[in-house]
Amino acid sequence: MSKRDLLRATTFGHRVAEEETDTLSTYFVETDIWDRLYRGDIDIVYGTKGAGKSALYSLLLSKSSELFDRSVLLVPAENPRGAPAFRDLLTDPPASEREFIGLWKLYFAVLLHDVLRSYNVATDESKQLSAALEREGLTKGALTLTGLLHAVGDYVRRALNPQAIEGGVKLDPTTQLPVGFTGKIMFAEPGAKNPDPELRSVDRLLALASSALSKSKLKTWILLDRLDVAFAENTTLEINALRSLFRVYLDLLEYSSIQLKIFLRTDIWARITSAGFREASHITKHVTINWNRNSLLNLLVRRAVHNEAIRNAYTVDVTLATEPVKDQENFFYRLCPEQVDVGPSKSTTLDWLLSRTRDGKQVNAPRELIHMMNSLREIQVKRLEHGDSEPEGELLFVRGAFKEALPEVSKVRLEQTIYSEQAELKPWIEKLRGEKTLQTPQTLSDIWQLSPEEATVRALALADIGLFEVRGQKQEPSFWVPFLYRDALDLIQGAAEPG
Predict the structure, then answer these.
(1) DSSP 348
(2) Which residues constitute the domain of residue 271?
């Protein structure tokens, strides 16, 4: 097989986990984090964008049959693909944190009822739960998660309206959404008593679901991912929604048969706790995904040997990914040259790749590394299709292809991560276009037409999102743009001088 054909038969996978659910388990790096999550020891998974949170979420879903054998039922509370169910809340969000807490709890109660019904769990408690929800027209039935959220959100909003009148809910026969409210589910604080047995507090509904599960020797894990996408357009709504979610998480800890599994970005967690969040100290079953040189090398090796063409051409097996790091690195250099920039003081190719896909906070995410390898493959294929000579020996890639592959990764990272999530910072970033890679408060004040003090504040905001790396002393900082963003902004290597 020619190297062009070998490359054309090779892929390093999708950089977004949602797009490779069917194959992810075949080369997923089963770390200690995964083992603890699978055992049920972890409830909250933090990580930067592209760090692998959704990969863990997707892998967990793929193991639903195995988990069922352990009496664990998985319940996705968000769409794994496509438009997030919670995104529709942007148009008509809950008015208060209390309303959000009510929404989360009632939504989970309906999802729990649906899973109990699906698995034919018939206890006195499940029947009571079913009767309470059916009376209010709040069973999931054929509704999508989005439709269910509409129904639940409307119910909670009306229930917490002081002008609401008690009674029942009438449903529109087409949309299955409530059109008139006279509801009987209450949203008092946990533990509040109500003398009327016909009224059901939402906490009572959750207790009924928990008891039904316990009596059936079952547990339910409610999974929540993609929360960064769901509320991305409204920071205030995002903070209210997620602070409420974590309060509900703590309330649910009393039910051993119900567990929330939340996958959340570290920067979002920092945002919702920045103004203080006393409950944070009670959230203990959590972990943060971190990647280092060896784990990223292992990721590349796993994805490379996943290709049958690679295994045949290099006479290796998938078990190579479990061999010592030295053997994995030796295999990597059978595919790639020792250096991209040749010289005694220059980095090795692996370190070059990691430095070019690292942001200003010194974070390497698998997403950019996978994108870089796929871009590299595409560039090398084009070179061979245009008549270039094959790489020497066993090598699949030539040095020049690496530098040609980076601009596409840089462009996508800037446009689809930074600009899509930090649109308000785009004008300031764009003013850096064509400038030097190392700036000071004074040079930035010239570029942005601000005072040096204001420029420093603005630069630190860009450092918070990883576009700058802060260098120097606190009193005299400098701001360095990492390689990841240089091509996208047409930056020039070197230090800027004051005008």
Answers:
(1) P
(2) 77-284
